[in-house]
Amino acid sequence: MAIKKSELYSSIWKSCDELRGSMDASQYKDYILILLFLKYVTDKYVGKPDAPIYILPEFSFNEIRKYKGMKDIGEKLKIILDRIASDNELFGVVDTIDFDDEAKLGRGKDRIDRLSNLVAIFENDALDFSRNKVGGDDLLGDAYEYLMKHFAIDSGKSKGQFYTPAEVSRIISKIIGISGDTLPSHTLYDPTCGSGSLLLKAADEAPNDITIYGQEMDLSTYSLARMNMILHNRTTADIRHENTLSHPQFLDSKSGSLKAFDFAVANPPFSFKSWTNGVNVQNDPFRRFDGFGFPPDKNGDYAFLLHLLASLKSTGKGAIILPHGVLFRGNAEADIRKNILNRGYIKGIIGLPPNLFYGTGIPACIIVLDKEYAQARTGIFMIDASKGFVKDGNKNRLREQDIHKIVDVFNNQIQLPNYSRMVPISEIEANSFNLNIPRYIDTQDPEDIHDIQAHLSGGIPAFDIDRLSHYWETFSSLKDDLFVPHSRPRYYELKIPQHQVRQTIFAHPQFVSYMQHVRGVFHSWKQRHEQELKNIGPDVNPKKLIRDLSEDILQVFEPLPLIDRYDVYQFLMTYWNETMQDDVYMISVDSWNAQLVPIKNKKDEFDCDLVPKSLVMQRYFAKQAEDVRQLEAQRDLITRQKEELEEEHAGEDGLLEAARTDTLKFSKASVSDRIKVIKNDPLAGEELRVLHQYLNLIEQEALANRKIKEAQVQLDRDVTTKYRDLSPDQVKVLVVEDKWYAALSRDMENELERISQVLTRRLTQLAQRYEVSLDRLKPEVEQLTLKVDQHLRKMGIQW
Question: How far is residue 129's CA from residue 538's CA, in Å, rounded to a whole number?
Fold first, then answer.
């Protein structure tokens, strides 16, 4: 039976517990990823002579499984990896880690157990990479990305730069121009490729296997990149190790100049101080600085940008991630920026939120380059996306809606207020070629200005009402039902009491019609995809499935006013990532089967991930479940009556106090014993009454609990029986309609509630702000002043 993909990945991550403490995350990632690599190439290529990676059965993951618990397990791992390196020219890639290193792995039995446990993690039957990307499901790719993200988080500030956040990689991959017309002969280059994640994301946008080139300075990170290409079935990718600025590895064989590529991407180390090491800046043989100027000695941002430009063909396109400072810093960088702009090489700039990257918390930007249309360029398209993110631990993260909005807006050059605009080169020139985005896009929320005249004389300013025009355009008569003109021009006052604002909005025919229309659009979307979802089988392509669903929901909600289609898109994508993706994976493996399995750490309790028991109860045993809830409600009422009696009569000198047990509680036995002691005492009438009342409640509560238990046992028995009888068609209804669509419908209702609440809160706020004017207060102040004066006179005080 399939397990959730998210649980599978987290189980691999837990394998790192075997190594934490003995070494830094930047080191233990190498052990985990090499074992992941060994498992993958075994599943994918073992015994296949024509495979791109040659793996003999006796030098595979299957062989190392035999050595679990044996003292030479580390030595055997080294032999296997050395042989794979030798057979596949992977020297310095998979043979760099010493699995016998006592300083890192421990001595004797500690080391044996640690390695054996690591190997056992990858023995999970669900971790079968022989079907990698069957139906578009990239089990290995998703697992690798999950691990790399967590390694980057654990590696800390100084060592997390080997990984570009997947969300940023996705943006770059979709805006640099790779499209359906891209051919295998087209080339893609990353001069600072890290572990290769950005390269792979960009390459995945091409319909064919685009030719990949990459270079990385750090040896261990270079090894990761090489393995990453193999793990993602990009075995022809040309990844090389060296310092890109001092020793670029990709040169034209005839001229010796830099090789030129069709596309290029880069996420270089920010503000790299030692970039000049080994670089002949003044007489650069690759002429990267000719006509532009020399970057500062202690800041390599523009050195990487100029290298990327020099590595692009005359029709080349690319993008680079750099700190915001490159947009406005002066001196030498200002001259370089001016020269680049004068050549028209910058197509656009996207300002990102702060604290996205694992190596730094400073905000960064994406500079989009395009040489092909440089001569005709008259403006630069700018986006300020700095406010679109969600907190994720101690970092910020771009949401799905943020990614999609950036890509849509940039690729379609959509100008949105406070978000994006095409800035003329002439305007940039007038600003001394300063590209600081806030100079051109004002993202500040409009100030909520108080109207002094309204505070003095009453009324709600028309200015504030007019700022809600997007509501009045949708609900054309609602404004007239809420407001009447004030006695002064350009001011309004509420036609109804404040507490009726929400009720008036919700009951308004146009608002009701709007809500019904939105629900109808959403219902049509669900109907359109219902059969597609119920037809999910082993050949499903999960990524295509969610792409079809999400793009359609964006399209159908685009024309609707008031509702942000990207918000609707986000709750679909959130549910997909949290629940639906795992469900689709389980269905693709086990089909539409629902089986109860034991709940971890809960004795004799069972449930089903795909079809939770609550869904079966709701659809087939709603009456029985409601009966149980009613019994529980009756029991809870009795319990409250008991507690009220205790509160009234327990405590010192209370009528119940003498019935407490040694444990300072009340029980049926202790109360009965107390009744026996005082039943013949003529002075104990009131105490006996309370004791009998309390005893009766104890008995009622016990009876209620027995009824609940009996009913619950019977309900559980019926539900368990029903699971065995569920047909695939019934499971489809439970999953698609009762689980997926029900959850999405709740999110949709919450979104509609949010829209109405925003208007209600704003109108109430304005009404309360100007409710009491100075003109109204003045007579009251005069009356109060007169009363105070009269009191003072009576007291003989003159003032």
Answer: 15
- DSSP assignment, residue 579? I
Q: Mean pLDDT in the chain?
A: 90
Question: If you classify domain 1-155 with CATH, what class do you get?
Answer: mainly alpha
Categorize the per-residue pLDDT at 143 as very low, low, confident or very high, splitting at 50, 70 and 90.
confident
| Helix ranges, 191-273 (H) | 197-203, 219-231
Instruction: Classify each residue of 495-509 as buried b or exposed e, where b means 16 or more C-beta atoms within 10 Å of its C-beta.
Output: eeeeeebbebbeebe
pLDDT digits (tens, 9 = 90+) for 487-513: 899 999 999 999 999 999 999 999 999
Largest CA distance in the chain: 119
Question: 343, 370 in Cβ contact below 8 A?
Answer: no
DSSP at 268: P
d(CA 581, CA 576): 5
Question: How confident is residue 134, by pLDDT bands cut at 50, 70 and 90?
Answer: very low
Strand partners, 380: 423
**Alpha carbons 357 and 359: distance in angstroms, whole number:** 6
Class of domain 161-445: alpha beta
Residue 240, strand partner residues: 215
Q: Which helix (H) or strand (E) holds 598?
A: strand 597-598
Distances (CA, A) of 145 to 53, 111, 138, 626: 22, 28, 11, 45
Stretch among 2-11, 189-198, 424-433 having the lowest mean pLDDT:
2-11
Write phi, then psi, for 447 (nearest 5 degrees): -70, 135
At residue 598, φ and ψ (nearest 5 deg) are -60, 145
Q: Do 661 and 670 contact (CB within 8 A), yes or no? A: yes
Tokens of 632: 């529980």
As given in the structure block, the two tokens for residue 17 are 């517990």
Helices vs. strands in the chain: H and E counts, helices first:
30, 16
Q: How far out from the chain centre does Cα 299 lie? A: 33
Q: 784: pLDDT confidence band, cut at 50, 70 and 90?
A: low
First to last CA, the chain: 91
Q: Which pLDDT band, with edges at 50, 70 and 90, does 24 fall under? A: low
Residue 747's identity, in one-letter code, is: D
Count of all residues that appear for the chain in the document: 799
Distance CA 638, CA 237 (A): 72
CA 694 – CA 155 distance, rounded (Å): 62
Spatial contact of 482 and 504, defined as CB atoms under 8 Å apart: yes
Backbone φ and ψ for 368, nearest 5 degrees, come out as: -95, 125
Quick check: 547 pLDDT over 90?
A: yes
Which residues have C-beta within 8 Å of that of residue 725, sequence separation ≥ 6?
Answer: none
The C-alpha atoms of residue 278 and residue 246 are separated, in whole angstroms, by 5
pLDDT at 107 over 60: yes
Parse the chain into domains and list their residue ranges: 1-155, 161-445, 615-725
- What is the C-alpha separation between 302 and 272, in angstroms, rounded? 10
Q: Alpha-carbon distance 438 to 458, whole Å?
A: 37
Average pLDDT over residues 173-192: 94
Q: What residues does 491 pair with on adjacent strands? A: 461
Q: How far apart are CA 216 and CA 194, in angstroms?
A: 6
Sign of CA dihedral 101, 102, 107, 110: negative
Of the candidates 213, 263, 211, 245, which has an alpha carbon nearest to the alpha carbon of residue 371? 263
What is each CA distance from 789 to 286, 496, 778, 779, in whole angstroms? 92, 38, 16, 15
Average pLDDT of the residues in 249-266: 95
Q: Tell me the whole-structure pTM to 2 decimals.
A: 0.86
Sign of the torsion formed by the C-alpha atoms of 450, 456, 459 and 461: negative
Structure tokens at 325: 């400072």
Tokens 């001259």 appear where?
A: 335
369 within 8 A of 347, measured Cβ to Cβ: yes
- Chain centroid to CA 362: how far? 20
- What is residue 306's predicted lDDT score, i.e. its pLDDT? 98
Q: What mean pLDDT comes out for the span 569-583?
A: 95
521 or 139, higher pLDDT: 521
